[in-house]
Fold:
Amino acid sequence: MVKTIILAAGSLKGLKSITDKPSRSLLKLGDKTILDYIVDVVREKSDKIVVVLPRGTFKVSKPDIVTVNQDISSNNVVEAICLGFNACKHEDDIYVILYGDIYAEQPFYAKPLINAEQGLYPSITVTIPSIPRPSYLYLDIDMISAKVVRVGEGNYIHAGALVLHSRDLKTLCTEMRSIQALLVKLSQRKELYADVWTGVWVDIDGPWDYMLAIRHYLSQLREQILSSEANIASTAILDGPIVVESGATIDHYAVVKGPVYVSKDSIIGAHAFIRKNVFIGSKVTVGAYTEVKRSILLDESYIASHCYIADSVIGEKASIASFTVTRNIPYRSLPREVLITTTLDVERLKIGAVITKGKKVDPHSTLMSATYY
Structure:
C-alpha cells in the first residue's frame, strides 16, 4: 500500500469568472466534485489519503481522509506537496502525488498506484497534448528503457501525477523547492520512469477546459436515471442517456436528448429543447421555447424564454433575458490566445460565449464567440 497526496488547493485561474468555488478540484462532475471522482478511484489502493485544500474550505467528509489547508494566495505546488508530506509525518514510504485539477479517465489516477506497488518509481505520468504550449513542462523519453532522459525539452509533458519515495520528497521539501530541479536530478541519475498516458486528459485551467471535461463525462452515461422525486410532465420527451435529479421539473412538451445531466431543483420550461452534452447545475431555470446544446449552465443561472445557447458556459447566478442568441465558431478559427489544455481532438470543437457569474444579459442580445460577458 502507498500514501496518496491529492493537490486540491490550486487557484481558480480562468474559472474565477464563472464560479465562487474555492478550487478547480471542487467543480462538479454530475453529482460529485472532481475531487470526489479522484478519491473514489484511489481509495482502494491507498494506505492513507491526504487532500490539500484551500484554507477555509470545508473538510472532506470522509473518515479515512486527512485534510490539510494551504493559503490560497500561495498557489505553490511544492508547498502543497510538502504540506501533504508533513501530514504523513515524513513516514518512510512510497507517495503518489495527484494534481486535483486534472480530469481524465479513471485508469489515469489508478496507474500511479499500480506503478508504486510494482516498484516502478520514481515515476512521472506524461502525455502529448493536442496543442503544444510554451508553458508546459516538457520531457524527452527513451521509449526502450521507459525513462526520462531530458527535462525541459521533448514531445511529452508532465500530466499531473508523480510517484516518489519519501527520500525524494525530503529532498524536494528541504533542499530544492522545485519540481523541475528534482526531476532533472532524477533523470540525470537515469532513475526517473515515464508512464505514458494516451487516453483522455484535460487540465482544467479555464471554462473551455471545463466544458471539454463535462462533455467527456457525459459521454460515459449509458442510461436514463430519473429521480422518483423529479417532476417530469407526461408530454415531455426524453431520449438517450439522461440524469434528472430530485426536485427537478421538466415541463410539458420539453424535449431532452442525451447525454444531458439535470441537477436538483432545476426547471426546464415548456417546449424547451435541451440536447447533446448539456450539464445543468442546481436551481437553474431554462425558459419556454429555449434551445440549449453542448453547454454548461452553472448553479442558479437563469435562461429566459426563446433563447439559443450553444457551446457556451453560463456562470453561477447569471441571468440571460429573452431572445438572446449565442454565436459559435470552430476552435481552430480562433486566435491562439484562446487556450485549451487537453489530449482530446479539438478539430470539430466549437466555441460559444462565457457569461460570467452574476451577469445580467439584456433581451435580444447576440453573444459573440470566445467572448466573456
Notes: The first helix runs from residue 34 to 42. DSSP finds six helices and 36 strands in the chain. The chain has a mean pLDDT of 93.
